[in-house]
Amino acid sequence: MSLRSRLQKNPFIHNYSRMWPFVKPFWKMALLSLVITLPIGALDATVALFLKPYTDLVIVDKDITSPWYIPLLIVGFTFVQGSLIFISAFVSTYVGGKFSIAVKSKLYAKLLSLQPAYFDSIHSGTVAMRFSSDADTACGGLLIGLKTLLTRVFSSIALIGVLFYNSWHLSIIAMLILVLALTPLAYVKKLIKKIVAQNILLSASVTTNYNETFSGNRTITAYNLQEQRAFNFKSQMETVFGLSMRLNGRTAWLSPAMHFIISIGLALAVSVGSWLIVSETITAGNFVSFIAALLMLYTPLKGLGRTIVSVQSSFLAIERIFELFDMEPTIQDKKDAKKLEGIQKNIVFDKVSFFYNEGKPVLNDINLHVNVGESIAIVGNSGGGKSTLASLLPRFYDVTQGSIKIDGTDVRDISTHSLRDNISVVFQDNFLFSGTIRDNIMQGNQEASEEMLTQAVQSACLCDFIESLELGLDTEIGERGSLLSGGQKQRVAIARAFLKNAPIIVLDEATSALDNKSEKIVQQAIDNLMKDRTVFVIAHRLSTIRNADRIAVIHEGQLVELDNHDGLMKITNGQYRQLYEMQFHPSLSLEKPKEVEENNDDNVNAEKNENIISTTSV
Ligand SMILES: Nc1ncnc2c1ncn2[C@@H]1O[C@H](COP(=O)(O)OP(=O)(O)OP(=O)(O)O)[C@@H](O)[C@H]1O
Ligand SMILES: [Mg+2]
After folding, report:
1. Residue 415 lies in a domain
2. How far apart are CA 144 and CA 35, in angstroms?
């Protein structure tokens, strides 16, 4: 194997060289910060070097006047060294900061490009750890590692020069001891690799714990989970502690061991050195200068045990970062992906099957033909696959078999950006971002005018609510919209969908039990949203179902019935009829669906119950 390919295969060099594109834009500054370190290292040696003439002239020859310049030079050199260290620290903080921005921005872009399935499989703590902390560790470690390495290399070369200048006999002994002292390092690196990786995983779960305590705080309070959570947290911390003790056990011996080996080196140098002085092979000055240089050479080694953990952590962080960079999103545009410009004819689900995990089919051979402008209500048992079916259209997931076509074009042949531009999704659990109501609605269309915004607010039946607020649209809604009621959140999400003004609507109606008045308002907002659009609505409310042109019944992943309300009610023992009759009107005869509507109009409470098909209890 050639040297070049061997170097390329070395994981250390491979990973460091892949960092180059991030450093490239400011390589001059990076180079400066590294070049400055060269004299910093080399200046150590000059101090050691001066000790020879000083010892020989002053201590041995008692000549005070000749070496007058030496104290001045020592101070002068140390001043230059100090100034360089200052400049180097400044430049490297700048380069390190810029470098970290470049890596983190690329990591964040990668995170945004990943498919929902990726987010299903990881925890929030892991995201924070792998996409943010790892970048800090890697960038900080990379630059400091390189700088330390270069300073050490150059100071070592210069110091070794001083050693050989003074005595080659003693230098050979010193070199042998140096090699001996360095050998445990490679061994320790292997020993700690696994523990450092485990430590990172555990720290991620601690972060997830904090996140869950924040977002799940009401559940924790309602179920009195404080003690249990506190106990879990403590045991997490104990495990982290156990790991760091193991880490310590594997590295703490390193410094004393090196210290011991080095002391043998010094002892040998002193013994052999004394003999060399007596035999007049070297002068006393040579000896003092040699010992000073040797001490300077050995000193950083003694601390290496401590730094090896942080260097190893940064190296592992770089490896993990590149794992992320190498990850390809599973949902991507084809090279010749088409741009979708509205919908003219139809949307067809053609023999669609899907599973999240192999061997556990969620949807099975679904055939559904929806014409433009039509609204399809999807009902069925909880966990039957309704939300999953709706999430296949905007390609949150890709079908496992079959295809979904818009105007004859497979959604996988359409650019995801234009596909999603044409679909407004209102989710079962709507997510609102921290910020104001205006910020959240404007996410539907960043370029919308004030007039369009007002129109969306009106259509989403938000006017009364917004007028009642002192700051109106500019009211802060808290993280995840925590300062709003359930119905208000839904309507803000609907207004956001309005502003997007996409021709296709996917609506996963929330089952949250709203009070009668807000339910009517939300229903009005939904009705407005559905007008003149092609709509898939996972329906829980009878009013929505009745307003839909057709109803698709999804049961255990199969499309079992498809017709309008009246048609479906005619199917004896049909799923829809069972849902409708058995759940809400066990006392009513199966033959009298019309009575139900009359009943609804008369009785307010009955209307509330009837208006929600709570599929979760099926
Ligand atoms: N991200 C996921 N990863 C793995 N399995 C999932 C995922 N999301 C849903 N499932 C599973 O797929 C099945 C269908 O879920 P889906 O959310 O589509 O049901 P649904 O009909 O919308 O139910 P509901 O009426 O309760 O909202 C369920 O068994 C569910 O556990
Ligand atoms: Mg659902």
Report:
1. no
2. 13
- Report the share of the chain in percent with pLDDT over 90: 22
Look up the domain containing 169 and give its range: 3-326
- Pick the residue whose CA is nearest to atom 11 on ligand 1: 383
The pTM for the full model equals: 0.74
DSSP SS3 for 211: helix
Using the predicted structure, report yes or no on whether residue 53 has a pLDDT greater than 90.
no
Is the pLDDT confidence value at 500 over 80?
yes
- Kindly list the distances between the CA atom of residue 610 and the CA atoms of 78, 374, 513, 582, 618, in Å, as whole numbers in the listed order: 86, 24, 12, 12, 15
Hey, which of 115, 119, 387 would you mutate to test ligand 1's pocket, going by the most ligand atoms within 8 Å of its Cβ? 387
Residue 541 CA to ligand 2 center (angstroms) comes to 14
pLDDT at position 528, please? 78
Count of domains for the chain: 1
Q: Is residue 220 part of a domain?
A: yes
Closest CA to 560 of 364, 361, 329: 364
Residue 111 covered by a domain:
yes
Domain for residue 396, yes or no?
no
* Position in ligand 1 atom list of the atom nearest CA 384: 21
Q: What is the pLDDT of residue 9?
A: 67
Under the banding of pLDDT at 50, 70 and 90, the label for residue 518 is low
Nearest residue CA, atom 14 of ligand 1? 385
**Do strands 361-371 and 534-538 pair parallel, antiparallel, or not at all (unpaired)?**
unpaired
DSSP 241-291: HHHHHHHHHHHTTHHHHHHHHHHHHHHHHHHHHHHHHHTTSS-HHHHHHHH
* Dist CA 77 CA 80 (whole Å): 5
- Ligand 1 pocket test, pick from 118, 354, 388 with the greatest ligand atom count within 8 Å of Cβ, gives 388
- Ligand 1, CB within 6 Å, residue ranges: 120, 356, 362, 382-388, 428, 615-616
**Rounded distance between C-alpha atoms, residue 540 and residue 613, angstroms:** 4
- List, in sequence order, every residue forming a beta bridge with 555; answer none if it has no partner: 558
The two beta strands, 346-355 and 361-371, are antiparallel
List the shell of residues around ion ligand 2, using CB closer than 5 Å: 387
Rg (CA), the chain: 36
pLDDT at 6 over 70: no
| Mean predicted confidence (pLDDT) in 346-350 | 94
Q: Supply the mean pLDDT for the chain.
A: 82
**CATH code of the domain in which 242 resides:** 1.20.1560.10
Ligand 2 center from residue 176 Cα (angstroms)? 70
Q: Which region among 23-32, 167-176, 520-529 has the lowest average model confidence (pLDDT)?
A: 520-529
204-245 per-position pLDDT tens digit: 888 888 888 988 888 888 878 889 899 999 998 999 899 889
The rounded Å distance from CA 590 to ligand 2 centre is 27
